[in-house]
């Protein structure tokens, strides 16, 4: 063992927490909580102390032998150690591309502009009652295909703004946030990621988590303002209806954040505030164990010891909020059910009794719907096959 060697570590972040010191690799979501003495070992290694110097310091300070090789293996598993075959990392950048815009979007003057936009939309809805939210606004055209494609295309900017606000809030803090095009089920969506967010002080994480919902509110307000302006322009009623439909669909997107069975923006706010690690998985396990107790299948219970003490403590009451997310989703489905019912009734009426363009409108709408559900079923089937394959491999 070469005790004179110096370990070269990647740029790391240190964050004091109740359970110890959270150390993470900058620009990634790799982190672990170390006791104070363990964090001090990492700090000294990062300063360029040799292995022997660290061992001598530990023995002198704590009057105990340090299993340094085991500790180094742990750092290597966390990818904290820079291997010789890797290219040299740049130091933690004090300034990253887009950081200026991120700061400008969340400066006091910007908040004043946002408040004016929100107030303007509120005034417009008071002066034009037809702009106030109503589920019937979703059905803005008598052509079902136009409704489907119009809402799908029109919501893409909304999702881009939502994720873009997350991106800007992350860049504002110096995080290498990224925006990419992804897929959820059969929908093309924009997705943002904020590597290293858990290495940021706790009170500075709230804005990055909630900024997307601010983007939703601003997009809704823009749609209302545009629709209000169009209503006062001759011959623009159809476009006004389109923008009111986009506004209402944005409300549905905003409500998505309250589906607590998903990892939504509000979920991360709750986890951050309560100091949990994996509250969602813990709550699912807690609810599952309750159900297994009811049906007297206790032998299938999940071992709760795999979760942190804090997660287990919070899950006992958060599990009901988790379940409430499903109830809220059902409520939202019932809320828009009359519109969906009218839409489908019109589609089948045109299919059997319509002629010309009305008939073909129904054909195209049903074809697109079947394709969407077909893709969803295929993806779901693939996921089931992968899970079964993983189980078989684990049992071999």
Quick gist of this model?
By secondary structure, this protein is mainly alpha-helical.
Mean pLDDT, rounded to whole units?
A: 82
Described by strand count, sense and barrel closure, the largest sheet is: 3 strands, antiparallel
- Write out the strand line-up for the largest beta sheet, numbering strands in chain order: 1-2-3
Order of helices and strands: EEEHHHHHHEEHHHHHH
Q: Given the structure, what is the number of helices?
A: 12
Spans of at least 5 consecutive residues with low confidence? 85-93
Helix proportion: 55-70%
Report the principal-axis shape.
globular
Over the alpha carbons, how many angstroms does the gyration radius reach?
27 Å
N→C terminal distance: 38 Å
Strand content: 5-15%
Which structural category fits the helices and strands? mainly alpha
Number of strands: 5
């Amino acid at each position: 063992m070469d005790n004179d060697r110096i370990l070269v570590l990647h740029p790391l972040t240190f964050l004091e927490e109740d359970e110890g010191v959270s150390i993470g690799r900058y620009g990634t979501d790799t982190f672990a909580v170390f006791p104070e003495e363990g964090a001090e070992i990492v700090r000294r290694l990062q300063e360029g102390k040799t292995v022997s110097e660290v061992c001598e310091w530990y023995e002198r300070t704590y009057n105990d032998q340090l299993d340094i090789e085991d500790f180094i293996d742990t750092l290597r598993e966390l990818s904290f150690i820079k291997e010789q075959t890797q290219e040299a990392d740049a130091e933690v950048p004090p300034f990253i591309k887009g950081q200026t815009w991120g700061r400008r979007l969340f400066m006091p003057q910007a908040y004043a502009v946002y408040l004016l936009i929100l107030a303007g939309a509120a005034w417009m809805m008071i002066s034009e009652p037809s702009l106030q939210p109503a589920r019937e606004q979703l059905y803005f055209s008598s052509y079902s295909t136009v409704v489907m494609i119009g809402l799908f295309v029109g919501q893409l900017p909304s999702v881009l703004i939502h994720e873009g606000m997350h991106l800007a809030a992350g860049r504002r803090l110096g995080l290498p946030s990224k925006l990419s095009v992804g897929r959820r089920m059969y929908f093309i969506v924009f997705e943002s990621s904020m590597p290293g967010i858990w290495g940021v002080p706790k009170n500075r994480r709230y804005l990055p988590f909630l900024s997307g919902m601010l983007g939703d509110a601003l997009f809704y307000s823009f749609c209302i303002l545009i629709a209000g302006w169009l209503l006062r322009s001759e011959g623009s009623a159809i476009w006004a209806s389109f923008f009111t439909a986009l506004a209402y669909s944005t409300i549905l997107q905003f409500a998505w954040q309250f589906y607590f069975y998903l990892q939504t923006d509000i979920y991360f706010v709750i986890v951050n505030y309560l100091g949990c690690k994996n509250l969602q998985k813990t709550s699912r396990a807690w609810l599952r164990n309750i159900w297994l107790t009811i049906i007297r299948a206790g032998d299938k219970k999940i071992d709760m010891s795999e979760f942190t003490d804090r997660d287990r403590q919070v899950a006992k009451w958060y599990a009901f909020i988790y379940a409430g997310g499903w109830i809220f989703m059902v409520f939202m489905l019932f809320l828009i059910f009359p519109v969906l019912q009218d839409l489908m009734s019109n589609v089948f009426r045109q299919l059997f009794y319509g002629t010309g363009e009305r008939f073909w409108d129904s054909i195209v709408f049903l074809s697109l719907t079947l394709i969407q559900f077909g893709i969803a079923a295929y993806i779901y089937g693939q996921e089931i096959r992968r899970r079964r394959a993983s189980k078989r491999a684990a049992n071999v």
